[in-house]
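In this supplementary section we document a worked example of the pipeline. Step one takes a protein sequence of length 225 as its only input; no multiple sequence alignment statistics are reported here. Step two produces a three-dimensional model, which step three serialises into structure tokens for compact storage. The input and output of this example are shown verbatim.
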Amino acid sequence: LGSLYGLYSFNAAGGKGVNVQPSLTLRVSPALKLTLSPTYSWTHAMAQYVTRVTDPTSTEMYGSRYVFSTLEQQQVALVTRVDWTFTPTLSLQLFAQPLISAADFKDYKEFAQARAFKFRIYGKDAGTTIAQDPSTGTYTVDPDGTGAAPAFTFGDRDFNQRSLRGNAVLRWEYRPGSALFFVWQQSRSGAVGSGNFEFGRDFDALWNVQPQNVFVVKATWWLGR
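The serialised model returned by step three reads:
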């Protein structure tokens, strides 16, 4: 059994987005079912909010500078589920979701005027400069060159996020209506600030992240009548 969901979106400002999510369920045997649901999404946003800077010289924006950027983001995830029934009283459920996401912030800019979707891109529009410190990634912006506006700084927003969520639940019904649950949960999460999407590199790096493991035992007892 399979299905496919797809979505393409766009707006008048030039933003675009793609989301694709196929799903496949396999009945391997009467006792074993496998479900795979991969997801891929791509976003190109023209005005991703970054920060607000107080500047009394920015009279058109009422004493503030609102900093935005163009955002290019890709994300891949895979939801995997396994349902395995060994006997009428013993079963195993598995769930795993690796996820890789990369976001590239570029063309940092500010609102050019109030009540209008217009921007001045730092380093491209006249009078603006932007420079990045290679050792810290911090940006320094002078919004009007030799004008009275003070320069300001903000950190690089690029990121690569890698995560894994998984759990396994073994259920044993040791008597009618009463059961023991043995649960194992594992999570991994890590991030770097590169911003470029490279599936093989990020997937391999996911397994080098220190995992967090949780083990739980739960028992239920049916009193009956």
